[in-house]
Write a structure and sequence with these properties.
By secondary structure, the protein is an alpha+beta fold. Helices cover about 70% and strands about 10% of the residues. It has helices at about 5-35, 40-65, 70-90, 95-105, 115-140, 150-230, 235-260, 265-270, 270-280, 300-320, 355-365, and strands at about 285-290, 325-330, 335-340, 370-375, 380-385. A five-stranded mixed sheet has the order 1-2-3-5-4, with helices on one face. A hairpin with a 3-residue loop joins strand 4 (about 370-375) and strand 5 (about 380-385). Helix 1 packs antiparallel against helix 2, helix 4 runs parallel beside helix 6 and helix 10 runs antiparallel to helix 11 (about 355-365).
């Protein structure tokens, strides 16, 4: 399973665990809370908890549609609601409520991007202050739920310890994840460097065995023609015609080689023109849909182009499908996908160098790739750049 799929699975578990916890809390409070504690305001927290559960159910649906950032934001918002509701009804658990406000951001920090990340961080700081003030305010009200002081103290200490342990585990998991990402980044850089060296050697071989040999042959032929001009003008003209054909072949070979290194069309007109051109070279029928694409940094454009090219090549060669669909849309975020209707493959099996190179390219450019496949649903390669780099300004 790829790191992206592991992260998505982890977020799904967080959401489902929180939904289950909130539902259990609602049931317990509804069955026992009102009868035992006799607090009219307990219904307030019940309503707030139901709303929080609905927000998290919406987050699960967003995660299924690929919006992990919105799913993470729903986890944060629902926790804020739960903390506010609990503090309003039971102001003695303010320490627990503050930790409840903080924990979600720590757990889902790596899923939040851009505006969602900024709002979550600022909101967490503000909500922690609001919860502290709300608890102090509710303490002074006559209808505040005030258990016996010993019970209140014991509950506050117990809840604080439990939530603090959860927070510590979340921080530990984040540290482990960051270390794993650092190792993966180092491995990815080593693979990219090795692939770059191999590509340079392959280009050298292609030049030596192909265009260079043609040019050497042409040089020899031109010397022969020079000697033929005076004594056999007709033979010299025929030889020049043959050399002209060889020159066209050498130009074509150099153009093909350059196209494999970095397509001129990608340089000149970007992904909007380069992706449809690549689709026309597929053996299977290929539909290419590009929407609102802009120009991006060369590293981003090459990562998207060669990832789509690799996915199309794999679909052509291995999928046994009837059609390939390539989609790319932007400008921000930049997303691309390559879908086939073939037989699929086992995504948990070791990947080949082509797929590994595709993942490394996209990650090095600041994006992420997920690959899903099934025997009945074909294969989908999906990539996303939350904030793709723009082309540098001309000097």
């Amino acid at each position: 399973m790829t790191p992206e799929l592991q992260a998505t699975s982890r977020l799904r578990r967080y959401l489902l665990a929180n939904v289950a916890g909130i539902v259990v809390s609602v049931v317990v409070l509804a069955l026992f809370g009102v009868a035992l504690l006799r607090s009219a305001h307990l219904w307030v927290v019940l309503v707030i908890l139901v709303v929080a559960a609905l927000v998290q159910v919406g987050g699960v649906q967003m995660l299924r549609s690929g919006r992990s950032d919105m799913a993470a934001a729903s986890l944060v918002v629902s926790s804020w609601l739960a903390a506010l509701g609990a503090t309003y009804v039971s102001p003695f658990i303010v320490p627990v409520s503050i930790l409840i406000v903080i924990i979600p951001v720590v757990i889902v920090f790596d899923f939040l991007r851009g505006l969602a990340l900024r709002v979550s961080l600022v909101g967490t700081v503000l909500l922690a202050g609001v919860v502290a003030y709300l608890g102090q305010y509710r303490h002074g009200m006559a209808d505040a739920l005030e258990p016996d002081p010993p019970a209140a103290g014991a509950l506050a200490v117990t809840f604080t310890i439990v939530v603090a342990v959860i927070l510590t585990l979340g921080l530990g998991q984040q540290v482990s994840r960051l270390r794993g990402q650092a190792r993966e980044l180092a491995d990815s850089r080593r693979r990219l460097a090795a692939a770059s060296d191999e590509a340079r050697r392959a280009i050298e071989r292609d030049l030596h065995d192909g265009a260079q040999q043609r040019l050497v042959t042409m040089s020899v032929e031109l010397g022969r023609v020079t000697r033929l001009i005076e004594r056999d003008p007709g033979g010299a003209a025929a030889a020049l015609s043959a050399i002209h054909g060889q020159l066209h072949e050498a130009i074509k070979e150099l153009r093909d080689l350059a196209h494999g290194i970095y397509p001129p069309l990608l340089v000149e007109r970007g992904l909007t023109a380069a992706l449809p051109a690549a689709g026309r070279r597929c053996a299977l029928p290929c539909i290419v849909e590009v929407t609102d694409l802009s120009r991006y940094a060369a590293q981003v454009e090459s990562a998207v182009y060669f990832s789509c090219l690799e996915a199309m090549h794999n679909a052509d060669k291995h999928s046994q499908g009837s059609q390939i669909l390539v989609q790319a849309r932007g400008p921000v975020p930049l997303e691309f996908s390559v879908t086939d209707d073939g037989t699929g493959f086992d995504t948990s099996a070791p990947t080949g160098s082509g797929v590994t190179g595709m993942l490394d390219r996209v990650r090095a450019a600041g994006g992420k790739v997920t690959i899903t496949s099934s025997p009945r649903g074909g294969t989908v390669v999906h990539g996303r750049f939350e904030e793709p780099q723009l082309p540098s300004a001309p000097a």
